[in-house]
Amino acid sequence: AQSVAQPEDQVNVAEGNPLTVKCTYSVSGNPYLFWYVQYPNRGLQFLLKYITGDNLVKGSYGFEAEFNKSQTSFHLKKPSALVSDSALYFCAVRDMNRDDKIIFGKGTRLHILP
Amino acid sequence: DSGVTQTPKHLITATGQRVTLRCSPRSGDLSVYWYQQSLDQGLQFLIQYYNGEERAKGNILERFSAQQFPDLHSELNLSSLELGDSALYFCASSVGAGGLLNEQYFGPGTRLTVT
Q1: Cβ B56–A88 below 8 Å, yes or no?
Q2: pLDDT-based confidence at B7, cuts 50/70/90?
C-alpha cells in the first residue's frame, strides 16, 4: 500500500539558515510527489510537485525539493528561511499506476525563529 | 469511514453544463472545506465555510461557488463546465475554524468527468 512518512513533528530553524523538511514514501509503482503548506486558518496550498525528469524540483516561495529514488525520499528545502515560512508542511504521494486518492503525510510544523 | 459523506460518487456531464456537489460534514463539525484534485496539480484548496460563513478562499474559479446551509451541509456549484474541470472533488470537515490536516476529515470524493 502506498504511504508517506514525515519523521519530524516539528522543525525549528533560525531565520536566514537553510531548512530541510523530511519526507519518505512507499508506492508500488512510480510516484507523483507533492509538497503542500498550510498557514493558520487556511486550507492546503500547493508548493511543488515531482512527476518525472529532473530530481531537483523548484516551487513557490523559493522552496525546492530533491527526489531520491534509491532512498525513496522527497525532502523539502530552502536555502534561507524566512519567519513567514513558519507553517505546517505536508508531503503527499500518489501512485501513478493506481487511480487512488493522494495520500498525505501527517505534517511537519516549521518554526522559523527570528 | 471518516463520517464525511459526499454525493454523488460519480458525475458525467457535458461542457457548458452546471452541476452541484453535496457534502455532509461529520457530526459536530462546523467547518467544511472543498478541494479539487487533478493529476497535474494534486490537491488544491478551493474554499472553506465555518458555521455558514465563508472563512477562507483558495484557488476557486469565478465559475464555481459554494455555500453552507443552516444544517451545516455544503454544496459546491460548478457552472459553464470545461473539460479541464474534470477532477476529483473532495470535501473535508473539522470541528473548529482553523484546520490542521490531521484534524480535517476527508470525504470519499466526487469524481466529475466533463465530456
Answers
A1: no
A2: very high
